[in-house]
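Budget justification aside, the reviewers requested a transparent look at the raw inputs and outputs of the sequence design task funded under Objective 1. We therefore reproduce one unedited record. The lines immediately below are the structure tokens for a 415-residue chain.
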């Protein structure tokens, strides 16, 4: 078990973060009590609202909240549990949605003057799926302008002097502050996994196309994902699985495989530490903390490979080094619509400075620039796959060349 890494800020509604003592809001852990009547979805929601009232004034996670609507939905769910006719494993779970995702009964404003008071009169695919399954829709969470511009007012629940991360800022903070067990965010580059990590959440960015992104404001269609953030691993998977089960995948993809419960935990035998561009930009204290976690994993018997010990890892780091620039180029080109259309229709003044600057970068690109970026992305994918396959074949060759190991290799393959 990992030892605590505490951070005392003096400006934290929830106090310092200690992974061993941090109280995690678990919907999955409460469901059994819903069934036996010792707890109810309404009581669970009220505990979420207690955290909301205690912390929202400082954290500012929500752009819109519907407390009475959530209470009505929680009461209906409570009745279903009492009568033994629940809709799904997620029935009664309070959920918040990033304000880039449409909701039929709440505005989708995206922190933008252009969308003030706007509603699309429909639920995004993920909202529709979870609502249909009996989830309790609490509200919409804060985002930067159009998910790429001026940051929202959201602050980190563990240190309000610090950022909650972007662009799923409010989703991450709402879970970190214990206001909801699950919040749905979206990611085009790092907008889901970053705020999840900043706010002590589990964050899940599935394979592109695995979750239906219908009803999400587009940014860069070939990069856009949705995914859950949650206080527990079980709740994170449950939300993703139910979205996939009801709404399916996107762009011709079949969605996620597996049931609503995650598989049993398995201790990893080997992990890889990839020191890509972000590592060179990391401060010394963060590096030291990360190295401390690595030492704990090594003490627990987990092998960790990096470029200093593995030529394959060094090769992969080299392959991945330009990825950030390539993804940025693709994103800037693809966001030209609808962002340029907004400026053409309503005037450039409708957009904030940061949004205009990114749009101008995209407008300066030519189709050949975009084509080149896509070709580079495809080449890196092929190279990374080839490097992985070379590693697999080398390990297979070592097993098959060792006397008496053929049946072991066959058994591993069959599993």
């Amino acid at each position: 078990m990992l030892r605590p890494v505490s951070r005392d800020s003096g400006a934290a509604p929830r106090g310092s973060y200690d992974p061993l003592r941090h109280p995690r809001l678990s919907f999955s852990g409460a469901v059994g009590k819903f069934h036996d009547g010792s707890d109810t979805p309404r009581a669970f929601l009220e505990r979420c609202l207690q955290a909301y009232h205690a912390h929202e004034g400082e954290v500012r996670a929500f752009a819109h909240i519907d407390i009475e609507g959530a209470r009505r939905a929680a009461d209906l769910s409570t009745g279903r549990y009492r009568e033994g006719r629940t809709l799904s494993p997620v029935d009664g779970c309070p959920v918040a949605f990033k304000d880039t995702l449409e909701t039929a009964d709440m505005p989708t404003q995206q922190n933008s003057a252009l969308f003030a008071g706007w509603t699309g009169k429909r639920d995004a695919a993920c909202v529709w799926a979870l609502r249909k399954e009996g989830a309790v829709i609490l509200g919409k969470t804060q985002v930067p302008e159009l998910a790429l511009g001026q940051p929202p007012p959201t602050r980190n629940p563990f240190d309000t002097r610090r950022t909650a991360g972007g662009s799923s800022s409010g989703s991450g903070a709402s879970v970190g502050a214990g206001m909801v067990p699950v919040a749905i965010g979206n990611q085009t580059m790092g907008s889901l996994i970053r705020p999840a990590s900043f706010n002590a959440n589990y964050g899940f960015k599935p394979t592109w196309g695995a979750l239906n992104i219908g009803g999400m404001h587009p940014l860069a269609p070939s990069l856009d994902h949705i995914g859950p953030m949650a206080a527990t691993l079980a709740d994170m998977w449950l939300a993703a699985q139910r979205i996939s089960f009801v709404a399916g995948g996107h762009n011709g993809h079949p969605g996620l495989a597996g049931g609503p419960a995650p598989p049993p935990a398995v201790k990893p035998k080997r992990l890889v530490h990839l020191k890509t561009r972000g590592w060179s930009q990391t401060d010394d204290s963060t590096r030291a903390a990360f190295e401390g976690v690595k030492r704990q994993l090594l003490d627990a018997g987990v092998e960790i490979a990096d470029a200093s010990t593995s030529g394959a890892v060094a090769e992969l780091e080299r392959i991945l080094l330009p990825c950030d620039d390539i993804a940025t180029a693709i994103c800037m080109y693809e966001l030209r619509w609808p962002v340029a259309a907004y400026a053409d229709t309503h005037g450039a003044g409708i957009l904030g400075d940061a949004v205009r600057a990114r749009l101008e970068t995209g407008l300066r690109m030519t189709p050949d620039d975009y084509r080149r970026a896509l070709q580079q992305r495809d080449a890196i994918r092929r190279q990374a796959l080839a490097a992985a396959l070379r590693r697999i074949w080398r390990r297979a060759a070592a097993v098959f060349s060792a006397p008496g190991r053929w049946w072991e290799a066959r058994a591993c393959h069959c599993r």
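The chain is about 45% helix and 10% strand. The first helix runs from residue 31 to 36. Computational costs for records of this kind are itemized in the attached budget.
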